[in-house]
Amino acid sequence: MAEALKAGVLISGGGSNLQALIDAAAKPDYPARIAAVIANRSGAGGLTRARKAGIPTEIVDHTDYPSRAAFDSALQEALERYGVEIVCLAGFNRILTPGFVGSWEGRMLNIHPALLPRHGGKGMYGIHVHRAVLEAGDAESGASVHLVTAGCDEGPVILQRKIPVLPEDTPDTLAARVLEQEHIAYPEALAVMAARLRLS
Ligand code: GRF
């Protein structure tokens, strides 16, 4: 069997999606393994999840760098140090430079808590997304995993998981039910991409 693809996960926060990836990658037949978890904030809760799982962690704090380009070079250097072959953004709250995005073309994934192309783009994150779904009166929402390209939330979708929007939904209840779908969608999408890349 081909070796598992080395994934690097970038986080800024609690890392529940990271946890879903850690759990999936613990299965012997999963086609990827997590080689490193990198956070841009030392307080990111996901760092504890990674440490518990015995995964190497790094903090690359964006406030230590004079420019986005300098921050992105430090990220790149860390990813290379761990031999990362595919990058997963999992609640990572920094916009990446076109140079960085270009160097990971076809090998960087993001998860978004809506059915892209609906409710994506700048300013569409966290609770704002779920509020927008309710305000639009959408019948469905869900999770999308997509390849990262220069346009925010615009890259090709790898897979989506849908749920109905319920009449009694608030942004918080919708967020919680979408998050459950994210935790299924991200490991599935990483497996799809890892299988594709291992064959290519
Ligand atoms: C998720 O809702 C994800 O879609 C978004 O940020 C959130 C991260 O949550 N990009 P967690 O840190 O994985 O718990």
Description:
- With 200 residues, the chain is an alpha/beta fold.
- Helix content is 38%, strand content 22%.
- The protein is built from six helices and seven strands, in the order E-H-E-H-E-H-E-H-E-H-E-E-H.
- It has helices spanning 16-25, 46-52, 68-81, 98-103, 127-136, 171-199; strands at 5-11, 32-39, 57-59, 86-89, 108-112, 140-147, 157-164.
- A seven-stranded mixed sheet has the order 3-2-1-4-5-6-7, sandwiched between helices.
- Helix 2 links the parallel strand 2 (32-39) and strand 3 (57-59).
- Helix 1 (16-25) packs parallel to helix 6 and helix 5 packs across helix 6 (171-199).
- The longest helix has 29 residues, at 171-199.
- The chain is globular, with a radius of gyration of 16 Å.
- Bound molecules: 5-O-phosphono-beta-D-ribofuranosylamine.
- 5-O-phosphono-beta-D-ribofuranosylamine (GRF) binds next to helix 1, strand 5 and helix 6.
